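Entry for G3I complex. Fields follow.
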Amino acid sequence: MKFINPYLFIVTTFFLVSCTSQKEKLSLKDAYKNDFLIGTALNAGQIEAKNAKEDSLIKKEFNAITAENIMKSMYVHPQKDQYDFALSDKYVAYGEKNKMFIHGHTLIWHSQLAPWMEKIADSTEMKAFMKDHITTIVSKYKGRINSWDVVNEALNDDGTLRQSVFLKTLGEKYLIDAFKLAAKADPKVDLYYNDYNIEEPAKRAGAIALIKKIKAAGGKIDGVGIQGHWRLESPSIEEIEKSILEYSALGIKVAFTELDITVLPNPWDLKGADVNQKFEGNAKMNPYPEKLPDSIQTKLAERYASIFKLFLKHKDKISRITFWGVYDGQSWLNDWPIKGRTNYPLPFDKDLKHKPAYESILKLKKKEE
Ligand code: G3I
Protein backbone atom coordinates (compact mmCIF):
# COMPACT_ATOMS: atom_id res chain seq x y z
CA MET A 1 0.00 0.00 0.00
CA LYS A 2 1.52 3.38 -1.01
CA PHE A 3 1.87 5.89 1.89
CA ILE A 4 1.11 9.54 1.17
CA ASN A 5 3.58 12.00 2.66
CA PRO A 6 1.38 13.59 5.40
CA TYR A 7 3.22 16.91 5.12
CA LEU A 8 2.66 17.07 1.36
CA PHE A 9 -1.01 16.12 1.84
CA ILE A 10 -1.59 18.97 4.36
CA VAL A 11 0.22 21.56 2.22
CA THR A 12 -1.66 20.54 -0.96
CA THR A 13 -5.03 20.57 0.81
CA PHE A 14 -4.32 23.97 2.32
CA PHE A 15 -3.29 25.31 -1.06
CA LEU A 16 -6.43 23.98 -2.77
CA VAL A 17 -8.71 25.31 -0.04
CA SER A 18 -7.09 28.74 -0.09
CA CYS A 19 -7.35 28.90 -3.91
CA THR A 20 -11.05 28.02 -3.81
CA SER A 21 -11.77 30.51 -1.06
CA GLN A 22 -9.69 33.14 -2.93
CA LYS A 23 -11.77 32.48 -6.07
CA GLU A 24 -14.99 32.77 -4.04
CA LYS A 25 -13.63 35.90 -2.34
CA LEU A 26 -12.97 37.69 -5.65
CA SER A 27 -15.63 40.36 -6.12
CA LEU A 28 -16.27 43.20 -8.54
CA LYS A 29 -14.82 45.82 -6.21
CA ASP A 30 -11.72 43.69 -5.45
CA ALA A 31 -11.11 42.81 -9.10
CA TYR A 32 -11.31 46.46 -10.19
CA LYS A 33 -9.80 48.04 -7.07
CA ASN A 34 -6.84 49.46 -9.01
CA ASP A 35 -9.01 50.74 -11.87
CA PHE A 36 -12.13 52.58 -10.66
CA LEU A 37 -14.83 52.42 -7.99
CA ILE A 38 -17.63 49.88 -8.51
CA GLY A 39 -20.90 51.21 -7.10
CA THR A 40 -24.57 50.41 -6.82
CA ALA A 41 -27.82 52.26 -6.16
CA LEU A 42 -29.51 51.50 -2.84
CA ASN A 43 -33.23 51.58 -2.17
CA ALA A 44 -34.61 52.45 1.28
CA GLY A 45 -34.73 48.82 2.45
CA GLN A 46 -31.08 48.29 1.54
CA ILE A 47 -30.05 51.51 3.29
CA GLU A 48 -31.69 50.12 6.43
CA ALA A 49 -30.08 46.70 5.76
CA LYS A 50 -33.47 45.03 6.05
CA ASN A 51 -32.46 42.00 3.96
CA ALA A 52 -29.34 40.22 5.24
CA LYS A 53 -28.59 38.49 1.91
CA GLU A 54 -28.80 41.73 -0.06
CA ASP A 55 -26.72 43.51 2.58
CA SER A 56 -23.91 40.99 2.47
CA LEU A 57 -23.85 41.05 -1.36
CA ILE A 58 -23.69 44.87 -1.35
CA LYS A 59 -20.78 44.88 1.12
CA LYS A 60 -18.94 42.12 -0.74
CA GLU A 61 -19.27 43.46 -4.29
CA PHE A 62 -19.39 47.27 -4.10
CA ASN A 63 -17.20 50.08 -2.70
CA ALA A 64 -19.41 53.01 -3.74
CA ILE A 65 -23.07 53.80 -3.19
CA THR A 66 -25.76 56.12 -4.53
CA ALA A 67 -29.19 56.61 -2.96
CA GLU A 68 -31.61 55.59 -5.74
CA ASN A 69 -34.40 57.88 -4.51
CA ILE A 70 -34.33 59.03 -0.91
CA MET A 71 -32.10 62.08 -1.37
CA LYS A 72 -34.30 63.58 -4.08
CA SER A 73 -35.94 66.87 -3.19
CA MET A 74 -39.47 65.43 -2.71
CA TYR A 75 -38.15 63.22 0.11
CA VAL A 76 -35.45 65.37 1.70
CA HIS A 77 -37.17 68.79 1.42
CA PRO A 78 -40.90 68.02 1.48
CA GLN A 79 -42.02 71.47 2.65
CA LYS A 80 -40.48 74.90 2.11
CA ASP A 81 -39.34 75.20 5.73
CA GLN A 82 -39.04 71.49 6.50
CA TYR A 83 -36.25 69.01 5.73
CA ASP A 84 -36.39 65.28 6.42
CA PHE A 85 -32.92 63.80 6.79
CA ALA A 86 -33.93 60.58 8.56
CA LEU A 87 -33.17 58.25 5.64
CA SER A 88 -30.29 60.25 4.19
CA ASP A 89 -28.61 60.16 7.63
CA LYS A 90 -28.94 56.36 7.57
CA TYR A 91 -27.61 56.28 4.00
CA VAL A 92 -24.47 58.26 4.87
CA ALA A 93 -23.97 56.24 8.05
CA TYR A 94 -24.24 53.00 6.02
CA GLY A 95 -21.54 54.20 3.66
CA GLU A 96 -19.24 55.33 6.48
CA LYS A 97 -19.71 52.09 8.43
CA ASN A 98 -18.79 50.05 5.34
CA LYS A 99 -15.99 52.38 4.23
CA MET A 100 -17.69 53.11 0.92
CA PHE A 101 -17.49 56.11 -1.42
CA ILE A 102 -20.72 58.00 -0.81
CA HIS A 103 -22.39 59.79 -3.72
CA GLY A 104 -25.24 62.29 -3.32
CA HIS A 105 -28.07 62.08 -5.85
CA THR A 106 -29.35 64.73 -6.59
CA LEU A 107 -29.60 68.41 -5.65
CA ILE A 108 -31.32 70.05 -8.66
CA TRP A 109 -33.61 67.88 -10.82
CA HIS A 110 -36.86 68.74 -12.56
CA SER A 111 -38.39 65.35 -11.65
CA GLN A 112 -39.53 64.06 -8.26
CA LEU A 113 -39.69 67.67 -7.04
CA ALA A 114 -41.65 68.35 -3.88
CA PRO A 115 -45.04 69.70 -4.99
CA TRP A 116 -44.39 73.13 -3.41
CA MET A 117 -41.28 73.55 -5.59
CA GLU A 118 -43.35 73.19 -8.76
CA LYS A 119 -45.22 76.34 -7.68
CA ILE A 120 -42.12 78.57 -7.45
CA ALA A 121 -42.99 81.23 -10.00
CA ASP A 122 -40.40 84.02 -9.82
CA SER A 123 -36.65 84.42 -9.85
CA THR A 124 -36.39 85.86 -6.34
CA GLU A 125 -38.19 82.88 -4.82
CA MET A 126 -36.22 80.39 -6.95
CA LYS A 127 -32.88 81.96 -6.04
CA ALA A 128 -33.84 81.81 -2.35
CA PHE A 129 -34.94 78.15 -2.74
CA MET A 130 -31.75 77.08 -4.46
CA LYS A 131 -29.54 78.85 -1.90
CA ASP A 132 -31.40 77.32 1.04
CA HIS A 133 -31.78 73.84 -0.52
CA ILE A 134 -28.22 73.36 -1.73
CA THR A 135 -26.50 75.08 1.21
CA THR A 136 -28.52 73.20 3.84
CA ILE A 137 -28.08 69.75 2.31
CA VAL A 138 -24.43 70.00 1.19
CA SER A 139 -23.34 71.66 4.47
CA LYS A 140 -25.09 68.96 6.49
CA TYR A 141 -22.98 66.23 4.89
CA LYS A 142 -19.80 68.30 4.41
CA GLY A 143 -16.75 66.05 4.57
CA ARG A 144 -18.94 62.92 4.63
CA ILE A 145 -20.49 62.77 1.15
CA ASN A 146 -17.69 62.38 -1.41
CA SER A 147 -19.43 63.64 -4.57
CA TRP A 148 -22.75 65.13 -5.68
CA ASP A 149 -24.93 65.12 -8.74
CA VAL A 150 -25.42 68.89 -8.46
CA VAL A 151 -27.66 69.13 -11.52
CA ASN A 152 -29.39 66.12 -13.09
CA GLU A 153 -30.84 65.95 -16.62
CA ALA A 154 -30.85 69.66 -17.58
CA LEU A 155 -30.77 68.90 -21.34
CA ASN A 156 -33.14 67.76 -24.06
CA ASP A 157 -31.95 65.02 -26.42
CA ASP A 158 -31.11 67.64 -29.08
CA GLY A 159 -28.68 69.32 -26.66
CA THR A 160 -30.83 72.36 -25.86
CA LEU A 161 -31.67 73.24 -22.26
CA ARG A 162 -34.77 71.53 -20.82
CA GLN A 163 -37.61 73.95 -20.06
CA SER A 164 -37.61 73.11 -16.34
CA VAL A 165 -39.00 75.26 -13.55
CA PHE A 166 -35.38 76.28 -12.87
CA LEU A 167 -34.71 77.49 -16.42
CA LYS A 168 -38.07 79.22 -16.68
CA THR A 169 -37.53 81.26 -13.51
CA LEU A 170 -33.78 81.87 -13.57
CA GLY A 171 -32.57 81.27 -17.10
CA GLU A 172 -29.42 79.22 -17.73
CA LYS A 173 -27.67 81.03 -14.86
CA TYR A 174 -29.30 78.51 -12.50
CA LEU A 175 -26.73 75.96 -13.65
CA ILE A 176 -23.79 78.16 -12.65
CA ASP A 177 -25.47 79.22 -9.40
CA ALA A 178 -26.11 75.58 -8.43
CA PHE A 179 -22.45 74.58 -8.81
CA LYS A 180 -21.19 77.74 -7.06
CA LEU A 181 -23.57 77.21 -4.11
CA ALA A 182 -22.49 73.58 -3.74
CA ALA A 183 -18.78 74.48 -3.86
CA LYS A 184 -19.30 77.22 -1.27
CA ALA A 185 -21.04 74.77 1.08
CA ASP A 186 -18.32 72.11 0.72
CA PRO A 187 -15.20 73.17 -1.23
CA LYS A 188 -13.78 69.63 -1.14
CA VAL A 189 -16.68 67.54 -2.45
CA ASP A 190 -16.57 66.49 -6.12
CA LEU A 191 -19.33 68.15 -8.15
CA TYR A 192 -20.89 66.37 -11.16
CA TYR A 193 -23.28 67.15 -13.96
CA ASN A 194 -25.34 63.95 -14.49
CA ASP A 195 -27.54 63.01 -17.46
CA TYR A 196 -28.72 60.19 -19.73
CA ASN A 197 -27.98 59.81 -23.49
CA ILE A 198 -25.07 62.29 -23.22
CA GLU A 199 -22.98 59.74 -25.04
CA GLU A 200 -25.09 60.53 -28.14
CA PRO A 201 -23.60 63.24 -30.44
CA ALA A 202 -26.20 66.02 -30.20
CA LYS A 203 -26.77 65.72 -26.45
CA ARG A 204 -23.04 65.28 -25.85
CA ALA A 205 -22.41 68.57 -27.66
CA GLY A 206 -25.02 70.21 -25.43
CA ALA A 207 -23.43 68.77 -22.29
CA ILE A 208 -19.95 69.87 -23.33
CA ALA A 209 -21.24 73.41 -23.99
CA LEU A 210 -22.97 73.40 -20.58
CA ILE A 211 -19.83 72.21 -18.75
CA LYS A 212 -17.69 74.80 -20.54
CA LYS A 213 -20.16 77.55 -19.59
CA ILE A 214 -20.11 76.55 -15.92
CA LYS A 215 -16.30 76.44 -15.89
CA ALA A 216 -15.98 79.75 -17.79
CA ALA A 217 -18.23 81.43 -15.21
CA GLY A 218 -16.02 80.22 -12.37
CA GLY A 219 -18.20 77.31 -11.34
CA LYS A 220 -16.40 74.26 -9.89
CA ILE A 221 -17.33 71.15 -11.89
CA ASP A 222 -15.19 68.08 -11.25
CA GLY A 223 -16.92 65.45 -13.31
CA VAL A 224 -19.62 64.34 -15.69
CA GLY A 225 -21.98 61.47 -14.91
CA ILE A 226 -22.94 59.49 -18.02
CA GLN A 227 -25.91 57.55 -16.67
CA GLY A 228 -25.56 54.54 -18.98
CA HIS A 229 -29.16 53.32 -19.28
CA TRP A 230 -28.23 51.33 -22.34
CA ARG A 231 -29.41 48.53 -24.64
CA LEU A 232 -27.91 45.32 -25.97
CA GLU A 233 -27.11 46.85 -29.36
CA SER A 234 -26.70 50.57 -28.60
CA PRO A 235 -25.00 52.91 -28.02
CA SER A 236 -21.95 51.73 -29.95
CA ILE A 237 -18.62 51.21 -28.20
CA GLU A 238 -17.17 53.80 -30.58
CA GLU A 239 -19.70 56.44 -29.47
CA ILE A 240 -19.07 55.68 -25.78
CA GLU A 241 -15.30 55.89 -26.36
CA LYS A 242 -15.70 59.22 -28.22
CA SER A 243 -17.64 60.51 -25.19
CA ILE A 244 -15.03 59.38 -22.66
CA LEU A 245 -12.34 61.16 -24.69
CA GLU A 246 -14.30 64.37 -25.32
CA TYR A 247 -15.47 64.82 -21.71
CA SER A 248 -12.06 63.93 -20.33
CA ALA A 249 -10.48 66.53 -22.63
CA LEU A 250 -12.42 69.15 -20.60
CA GLY A 251 -10.19 68.28 -17.64
CA ILE A 252 -12.94 66.57 -15.66
CA LYS A 253 -13.55 63.05 -14.37
CA VAL A 254 -15.88 60.69 -16.22
CA ALA A 255 -18.23 58.47 -14.25
CA PHE A 256 -20.82 55.99 -15.47
CA THR A 257 -23.42 56.57 -12.81
CA GLU A 258 -26.57 54.49 -13.50
CA LEU A 259 -25.43 51.56 -15.63
CA ASP A 260 -28.01 48.99 -16.67
CA ILE A 261 -28.73 47.20 -19.96
CA THR A 262 -32.34 46.50 -20.88
CA VAL A 263 -33.02 43.26 -22.78
CA LEU A 264 -36.67 44.06 -23.55
CA PRO A 265 -38.25 45.73 -26.58
CA ASN A 266 -39.63 49.23 -26.10
CA PRO A 267 -42.61 50.86 -27.84
CA TRP A 268 -40.40 53.28 -29.74
CA ASP A 269 -38.41 50.33 -31.15
CA LEU A 270 -41.53 49.23 -32.99
CA LYS A 271 -41.61 50.94 -36.36
CA GLY A 272 -44.67 53.11 -36.60
CA ALA A 273 -45.90 52.11 -33.15
CA ASP A 274 -48.04 54.71 -31.43
CA VAL A 275 -45.96 55.11 -28.27
CA ASN A 276 -48.97 56.43 -26.42
CA GLN A 277 -50.93 53.24 -27.01
CA LYS A 278 -51.26 51.03 -23.96
CA PHE A 279 -48.61 48.29 -24.02
CA GLU A 280 -49.17 46.93 -20.53
CA GLY A 281 -50.01 43.23 -20.63
CA ASN A 282 -48.79 42.95 -24.22
CA ALA A 283 -46.89 39.62 -24.30
CA LYS A 284 -44.69 40.80 -27.19
CA MET A 285 -43.37 43.62 -24.97
CA ASN A 286 -42.72 41.23 -22.06
CA PRO A 287 -41.15 38.23 -23.83
CA TYR A 288 -39.34 36.65 -20.85
CA PRO A 289 -41.76 36.80 -17.92
CA GLU A 290 -40.28 33.79 -16.10
CA LYS A 291 -36.70 33.27 -17.27
CA LEU A 292 -34.15 34.82 -19.62
CA PRO A 293 -33.20 32.46 -22.48
CA ASP A 294 -29.53 31.41 -22.50
CA SER A 295 -29.05 33.08 -25.88
CA ILE A 296 -30.01 36.47 -24.40
CA GLN A 297 -27.97 35.84 -21.22
CA THR A 298 -24.96 35.30 -23.50
CA LYS A 299 -25.70 38.48 -25.47
CA LEU A 300 -25.96 40.44 -22.19
CA ALA A 301 -22.68 38.94 -20.92
CA GLU A 302 -20.91 39.82 -24.19
CA ARG A 303 -22.34 43.36 -24.10
CA TYR A 304 -21.16 43.96 -20.53
CA ALA A 305 -17.76 42.49 -21.40
CA SER A 306 -17.28 44.83 -24.38
CA ILE A 307 -18.35 47.84 -22.30
CA PHE A 308 -16.03 46.98 -19.40
CA LYS A 309 -13.19 46.28 -21.82
CA LEU A 310 -13.59 49.88 -22.99
CA PHE A 311 -13.78 51.14 -19.40
CA LEU A 312 -10.50 49.36 -18.61
CA LYS A 313 -8.88 50.87 -21.71
CA HIS A 314 -9.71 54.32 -20.34
CA LYS A 315 -9.49 53.59 -16.60
CA ASP A 316 -7.22 56.63 -16.20
CA LYS A 317 -10.18 58.89 -17.15
CA ILE A 318 -12.93 57.02 -15.27
CA SER A 319 -13.63 57.58 -11.55
CA ARG A 320 -16.58 55.29 -10.92
CA ILE A 321 -18.92 52.76 -12.50
CA THR A 322 -22.23 52.49 -10.65
CA PHE A 323 -24.88 49.90 -11.51
CA TRP A 324 -28.40 51.25 -11.18
CA GLY A 325 -29.54 48.71 -8.63
CA VAL A 326 -28.13 45.71 -6.77
CA TYR A 327 -30.08 43.01 -8.62
CA ASP A 328 -32.63 42.50 -11.41
CA GLY A 329 -35.64 42.28 -9.10
CA GLN A 330 -35.28 45.87 -7.87
CA SER A 331 -34.62 47.49 -11.24
CA TRP A 332 -36.71 50.47 -12.31
CA LEU A 333 -36.70 48.83 -15.74
CA ASN A 334 -39.27 46.26 -14.55
CA ASP A 335 -41.77 49.11 -14.59
CA TRP A 336 -40.45 51.60 -17.18
CA PRO A 337 -41.53 52.43 -19.81
CA ILE A 338 -44.14 49.70 -19.34
CA LYS A 339 -45.32 48.64 -15.87
CA GLY A 340 -45.20 45.03 -14.70
CA ARG A 341 -42.55 43.53 -16.99
CA THR A 342 -39.63 41.26 -16.10
CA ASN A 343 -36.31 42.77 -17.12
CA TYR A 344 -32.76 41.44 -16.63
CA PRO A 345 -30.48 44.51 -16.80
CA LEU A 346 -27.93 43.90 -14.01
CA PRO A 347 -25.11 41.42 -13.16
CA PHE A 348 -27.14 39.79 -10.32
CA ASP A 349 -30.45 38.00 -10.92
CA LYS A 350 -33.67 38.17 -8.90
CA ASP A 351 -32.22 35.57 -6.48
CA LEU A 352 -29.01 37.62 -6.04
CA LYS A 353 -27.06 34.98 -8.00
CA HIS A 354 -24.18 35.84 -10.36
CA LYS A 355 -25.32 35.94 -13.99
CA PRO A 356 -23.02 35.16 -16.95
CA ALA A 357 -22.71 38.96 -17.24
CA TYR A 358 -21.07 39.06 -13.80
CA GLU A 359 -18.60 36.34 -14.79
CA SER A 360 -17.79 38.10 -18.06
CA ILE A 361 -17.00 41.36 -16.25
CA LEU A 362 -14.75 39.55 -13.76
CA LYS A 363 -13.06 37.45 -16.45
CA LEU A 364 -11.58 40.60 -18.03
CA LYS A 365 -9.52 41.09 -14.86
CA LYS A 366 -8.55 37.44 -14.51
CA LYS A 367 -7.13 37.64 -18.06
CA GLU A 368 -4.96 40.57 -16.92
CA GLU A 369 -3.48 38.57 -14.03
O1 G3I B 1 -42.31 56.35 -2.48
C1 G3I B 1 -43.47 55.84 -3.16
C2 G3I B 1 -44.24 54.85 -2.28
O2 G3I B 1 -44.73 55.53 -1.14
C3 G3I B 1 -45.40 54.25 -3.08
O3 G3I B 1 -46.06 53.27 -2.30
C4 G3I B 1 -44.82 53.59 -4.36
C5 G3I B 1 -45.88 52.94 -5.22
O4 G3I B 1 -46.47 53.91 -6.05
O5 G3I B 1 -44.14 54.60 -5.15
C6 G3I B 1 -43.04 55.11 -4.42
O6 G3I B 1 -42.40 56.08 -5.22
C7 G3I B 1 -41.70 55.52 -6.33
C8 G3I B 1 -40.20 55.85 -6.16
O7 G3I B 1 -39.46 55.42 -7.32
C9 G3I B 1 -39.61 55.15 -4.92
O8 G3I B 1 -39.71 53.76 -5.07
C10 G3I B 1 -42.21 56.24 -7.59
O9 G3I B 1 -43.55 55.82 -7.81
C11 G3I B 1 -41.35 55.85 -8.78
O10 G3I B 1 -41.72 56.63 -9.92
C12 G3I B 1 -39.90 56.16 -8.48
O11 G3I B 1 -39.12 55.72 -9.59
C13 G3I B 1 -37.76 56.14 -9.55
C14 G3I B 1 -37.51 57.10 -10.72
O12 G3I B 1 -36.12 57.48 -10.71
C15 G3I B 1 -38.34 58.33 -10.57
O13 G3I B 1 -38.13 59.14 -11.67
C16 G3I B 1 -36.87 54.92 -9.72
O14 G3I B 1 -36.98 54.07 -8.57
C17 G3I B 1 -35.42 55.32 -9.89
O15 G3I B 1 -34.63 54.20 -10.23
C18 G3I B 1 -35.29 56.35 -11.02
O16 G3I B 1 -33.96 56.75 -11.07
C19 G3I B 1 -33.68 57.79 -12.03
C20 G3I B 1 -32.53 58.60 -11.50
O17 G3I B 1 -32.87 59.12 -10.23
C21 G3I B 1 -32.14 59.69 -12.47
N1 G3I B 1 -31.80 59.10 -13.78
C22 G3I B 1 -32.89 58.29 -14.34
C23 G3I B 1 -33.25 57.17 -13.38
C24 G3I B 1 -34.34 56.29 -13.99
O18 G3I B 1 -35.52 57.04 -14.16
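NOTE: The pocket of G3I is lined by residues 68-69, 111-112, 152, 196, 227, 258, 332 (CB under 6 Å).
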